[in-house]
Amino acid sequence: MRVLLKILALAIALALRPAVAGQYETFDYHVQQMIIHALAGDMASVQTFHELLGSLRQPEPGDLQQARSFSQQGQENLGRGNLKSALSAFRQAFIADPADPDIAGSLALTYLRLNRPREAERLAVYALSLAPAQATHWLTLGEIYGQLGDAQRATGALINAYQFAQDQPRMAAQLRQLATTHETDKVRIGALQALRAISATTASPGASNNPGETGRPVQAPLPDPQPGEIVRTEGSSTESPRQKVYRHAIPLTCLIVTFQNGKTANLGSGLLVSTDGLVMTNSHVIEKAENLAVRCGDQESRAEVRRRSKTPDLALLATSLKTRDSLVLNETYNRDLVGLDVFVIGNPYGLEGTFSTGIISGLREIDGVRYIQISAPISPGNSGGPVLLRDGTVIGIATLGSKVGQNLNFAIAAAEIVNSRFFDPKRMKSGRLNGKPRVD
Amino acid sequence: MRNVWLMFISLLAAGFCISLVFAQDSERNRFFVQQMIDLAAAGNQQGVQTMQRMLEQNSRPTALDPAAANASVQWGQAALQQDRLDEALKAFQQAVQDDSGHVEAFNHLGLLYRKLNRFIDAERALQQALSLEPTRAGAWFQLAQIYGLQNDQRRAVGALANTYLYAQNPMKAEEILRYIAEDEAVDALRNAALETLHLYHLPAQPAIVPPLAPNPALFK
């Protein structure tokens, strides 16, 4: 009788399927059924839909070798927290071999870490279509639903994560960790409800005394550096002053891209002058732009023009970027500057983050605007970028180059900005030569 | 003597008529392929499938020498793998002469013309492949790239939409579309991929700062 009822339920469920369904919709339907039945505690039906999902046509395997190589790159980047590089690598791995459930699952996880739960959901469902009993994919899916604000479905998916886990005590520990430490409420709620549901059906939800089963990665002790080995760490004392300037300024230097008719029109440089996303550049960089985008360090944002003027050739852009630091404008403008080393960072011809050096060759006033003449090379794409002193302060904004002669380049003096309507003393920082702050 | 002339003239006329019919067929097929692109770009999948069926009703051209055509395709593929593009081109051109219904040969010819930046020839070859096999997702994808490189975003959208529609593995096609929508330096192609994802209501996150094109000023 029970078997008959089960078959009847299955028949009704299948009859309720949409008449015309795409491949993904078919996978999703089975996965959702497994979630619904897990929530209802009907593990027999979960098993039935698991078998049905497993019987669907599997995709053709692709280039396994290429996929493995990309996947390895993805794992390395994921481990280092380079999520964008991990995404790119896992995508290429998935395209090379869409039949590997581990690759599809890793891609889903990367989307999740990048806070893209909708893409993550599709890939996790797809991964489950390839390996419906893979507990880690269910765990990822549970976290995805939590992030999407659906605690109920998160619960169902996490119950399945536990049910399909080969090492249930370890999975229970992972669920407990999600329930206590995850930053998203609905993920915590989902994990908690899943643990309750599991404990209602089992005597002990995998309580483990084994410290290796806490769900946390085991950290191996780092080997000591060998004698003579150069240790390169952030802020290392082996860095040259130039390297210190570069390390300090590169995350605060921006690539500016302009768009016209939805297409890339121009590239330039800029600098973050406030911690709440104000970016200074040249006005000519954003000429005729309909839309603007900036990338400063690892962060990207759309931008809007806050202020601009033709003379001096300046523009101030507002972005949504939030940083801990911003560049300091050095308002010194006197003969003491001549002969000092300068460093230019920018994006000449789109070569992002190009660092070059020179000296201050002179001070010039052109059309009533104070310029710093420098010998450091400037090319199209450098415009709007910072010209820095050794102490990391900005002495000018790269603006002009002479078509005749050699190394005759000009930056609008930072002093010109500090004494203009572009400068907001509440949000921007200024300093003087030999004054604080210093990079080294 | 008069009879010989009459025979010659009638043969010439027959040949002209046959070539005209073939030309008309080819133009008609190209028209259907273009219709499939336009309808796909407009989100009209039913229309696309109607055009597909019309193309599929065409009878396949008779092959002059199918064995020779297959041999030429194999030769062309080997040359293509070793980057001997001129040799590969000759091989595929020979293959389509020996068998004007050889989809694989037309598809490779399209790929090769694209590599050689001969976009108009590439478009024609791929249209020919698609008129023979309108569900060939790979040929639609090649065609989309050609339109993208030619800055024709609308047709790139149509061709990409058909790539997705006919893809054997839609999830792989979806991920390829996202890859293009985020990582492609050619604006028209990147925007077309994004538009295609929107057309199918698939999640996508457009690049805020688009990838930069390789620097044309660099030299070795």
Q: Could you characterize what this model shows?
A:
The complex is a heterodimer of chains A (440) and B (220). Chain A has 440 residues and is α+β, with helices and mostly antiparallel strands. Chain A has 2 domains: 64-208, Tetratricopeptide repeat domain (Serine Threonine Protein Phosphatase 5, Tetratricopeptide repeat); 245-431, Thrombin, subunit H, CATH 2.40.10. Chain A is built from 13 helices and 14 strands. Chain A has helices at residues 2-15, 23-39, 43-54, 64-80, 83-96, 101-113, 117-130, 135-147, 151-164, 168-181, 185-201, 241-249, 414-418, and strands at 253-260, 263-272, 278-281, 291-296, 299-309, 314-319, 328-330, 341-346, 354-366, 369-374, 386-388, 394-401, 409-413, 429-431. Chain A has a 6-stranded antiparallel beta barrel with strand order 1-2-3-6-5-4. In chain A, strand 1 (253-260) and strand 2 (263-272) form a beta hairpin. In chain A, helix 5 runs antiparallel to helix 6, helix 6 (101-113) runs antiparallel to helix 7 and helix 7 packs antiparallel against helix 8. Residues 1-20, 204-234 and 435-440 of chain A have low confidence and may be disordered. Chain B has 220 residues and is mainly α. Chain B has one domain (23-50, 70-199): Tetratricopeptide repeat domain (Serine Threonine Protein Phosphatase 5, Tetratricopeptide repeat, Alpha Horseshoe), CATH 1.25.40.10. Chain B is 74% helix and 0% strand. Chain B contains 10 helices and no strands. In chain B, helix 5 packs parallel to helix 7 (137-149). Chain B is globular and about 70 Å long. In chain B, 45% of the residues are buried. The model of chain B is unreliable at 14-22 (pLDDT under 50). Chains A and B meet through helix 5, helix 7, strand 2, strand 4 and strand 5 of A and helix 9 and helix 10 of B.
